[in-house]
Amino acid sequence: MSSDADGLDGGISPRENTHLVGHHDAAAFLAKAYRSGRIHHAVLIEGPEGIGKATLAFHFAQHVLTYPDAAKAPERLAVPDPASAVFRQVAAGASHDLMHLTRPVDEKTGRVKSAITVDEVRRAGRFLQQTSGTGGWRIVIVDPADDLHRSAANAILKMLEEPPARAMFLVVSHAPGRLLPTIRSRCLTLRLTQLPPDDVVAGLRRLPVGAGLDPGKLEKVAQRSEGSLRRAIMMLNYGGLDLIDALEKLLQAGKDASRREMHVLAATLAAKEREEAYGFFCDYALVRLGDMAHDSGVQGMTARAARQAEAAERAARDLQTAQAYNLDRKQTMLSLLGVLIEAAQPWP
């Protein structure tokens, strides 16, 4: 998955974003820890996708690079200054002291690879061995660590175990449970939570995609965004609200759901020009299945919750397989819709 709002029409890349939506306590913690001189060399910033983890990582990185002497750093996390040399270099991807480790582009196909490769991690290793251009810190943002190939994860682990002097890792993760336990154990964990709807609305209003939109529509998007600004942006850009309404109609119909409507929705998502909508729907479907399992558990229906959790895991595996082997997307969507409808049934 992409980093928070990175590459989305109407959004702002985390490296260029001067405004952090929410997460004030986490920002204050990082600023205080750095100023005290006791900042951990590796911070794992974890939480749901699209809530601002990468933006917080870039803000903190710029704070550290702007104030290399921790004792002279401000007590609060500094707001990135677009007029500063540090900001301009980071925004342009040209900083000699900061490396953004993410999935690389395949030179042959021009498409982003499916994983962060070991070659990229080795490049980060060479970067860390160099002397800082300012004599300060050298920072690597791993974004997200969930995309690390197994060999790349092992290579990162070695760096975390024996970090060079004045080297810092900011590790972003949407699903820390999928990381190597040894990587998690080498990091200080900073958990971020979903944004409240008011913060999502405020964030959208600051972005091109949300400027001038009807307040009622912004509120509706925020309520369905699961606290993710990225998901809210995708709803506005790629017809996400209509897709969700179509899915909910099918779930309410249950076993009586129209096969024709299922095929129409699957065909819409499978169209070549709907790449982003397809990705959005896959993510939303997995979240929806997880919410079903959670709600059933809260209501004491443990057997149903277990089946729904199993359905969520099966759907995630099927989607990964479909992506890996480039399987027919319409059939993949029909299968996913079948799993969702079955999971939503009022089992005994």
Automatic annotation (TrEMBL):
One of its GO terms (molecular function) is DNA-directed DNA polymerase activity. Keywords: Nucleotidyltransferase, Transferase. The keyword Membrane does not apply. It is an enzyme of class 2 (transferase). Signal peptide: none annotated. Gene3D superfamilies: P-loop containing nucleotide triphosphate hydrolases. It holds the Pfam family DNA_pol3_delta2. Its EC number is 2.7.7.7. Coiled coil: none annotated. It comes from the Bacteria. SUPFAM superfamilies: P-loop containing nucleoside triphosphate hydrolases (SSF52540). GO terms for biological process: DNA-templated DNA replication. One of its GO terms (cellular component) is DNA polymerase III complex. PANTHER family: DNA POLYMERASE III SUBUNIT DELTA (PTHR11669:SF8), REPLICATION FACTOR C / DNA POLYMERASE III GAMMA-TAU SUBUNIT (PTHR11669). This is DNA polymerase III subunit delta. It comes from Georhizobium profundi.
